[in-house]
Amino acid sequence: MRIVVSGVNPTDWKARAGAGAGRPTPFPEVVPNQDGAGVVDAVGEGVDPARVGQRVWLYLAAFGNPYGTAAEYSVVPQERAVPLPDGVDFDLGANLGVPALTAHRCLYADGPVDGRTVLVAGGAGAVGHFAIELARAAGATVIATVSSPEKAALATAAGAHHVVNYRSGDPAGRIRAAAPDGVDRIVEVALADNLALDVAVAAPHASIVTYAADAKQPTLTVRDLMTRNLVLRFMMLYTVPPDALARAVADVSAALAAGSLTPLPAHRFTLGDAARAHDAVQGGAVGKVLIDV
Ligand SMILES: NC(=O)c1ccc[n+]([C@@H]2O[C@H](COP(=O)([O-])OP(=O)(O)OC[C@H]3O[C@@H](n4cnc5c(N)ncnc54)[C@H](OP(=O)(O)O)[C@@H]3O)[C@@H](O)[C@H]2O)c1
């Protein structure tokens, strides 16, 4: 791969800062960053030579592989280089990997979402953004929570039908007003903070799918969860079952080709400033941190 744009996610600075410490790595040195977009420069044995020159987006480039995307060139297994449809630029390609595939799994692990109501907590975040876009494109009614007018504008632009500030007033009441029968699927970024809210707005048989781990631990209200047969699901992209990952890649590609996905506002860095790019993500940049290679 010749990398054109590298996308930075929280997982990249966490891994670089030692989140995987204690787990043995077979590599003496690794290049960071899972996501990116570029052009196939050369192919290995068994790969269709016609792929040379193909524009692609990359996912999991640095997973079990020393060649992440913060470099001029990378080497990845062929399935992790996915063709970019005509007219889709490298920036959008570099937005996709971790956030869009995570959003897809959170939405679909418990079945289709068309005709359902989906609550996306933190709708202006990278995963939240693609959860809104994928759910809306699939025919769901989408409610997003945010903490500010700036983030409300992002969630609305992504297509959320209802946007609720979770830090003021009565968020459960406002979500209930938008979804009187309750929400069917909750894509959750802060389980400990939001579990009580989630339980208050969940429909019977709803799934609460959490993909982020912070230091704070949730308090489980088991009877509340049990009486409505709620599902509490945990999701980690690196260990999603292979068939579900393949389906996520196919569905994200289809949504991309259909024009249903958009990039977040970009914060751009040069490759020489890759360390500052990681710091920006760690500092909670709103939007997408990209490295121009
Ligand atoms: N399990 C996985 O495979 C996986 C995959 C992707 C990401 N992640 C993790 O998920 C987290 C988010 O990733 P990201 O790339 O989407 O980050 P991001 O772009 O920084 O977005 C995080 C969003 O969460 C919102 N948020 C924080 N606390 C909240 C709360 N109590 N209620 C509602 N929203 C809240 C933030 O907005 P406000 O602070 O304004 O509310 C922000 O919009 C990171 O910890 C990342 O490591 C895990």
Q: What does the model show?
A:
It contains 9 helices and 12 strands. The mean pLDDT is 96. The protein is of the alpha/beta class and 293 residues long. The two termini are 12 Å apart. The strands form 2 sheets. The protein has a 6-stranded mixed β-sheet. It has a 6-stranded parallel β-sheet with strand order 7-6-5-8-9-10, sandwiched between helices. The longest helix is centred in the middle third of the chain and has 19 residues, at 90-108. The site of NADP nicotinamide-adenine-dinucleotide phosphate has 27 residues, from α1, α2, α3 and α6.
Task: Characterize this entry briefly.
The chain is an alpha/beta fold. It has helices spanning 10-16, 90-108, 126-137, 149-158, 171-178, 191-201, 222-227, 242-257, 274-282, and strands at 2-8, 35-39, 55-58, 81-83, 117-120, 141-146, 162-165, 183-188, 202-210, 231-234, 266-270, 288-292.
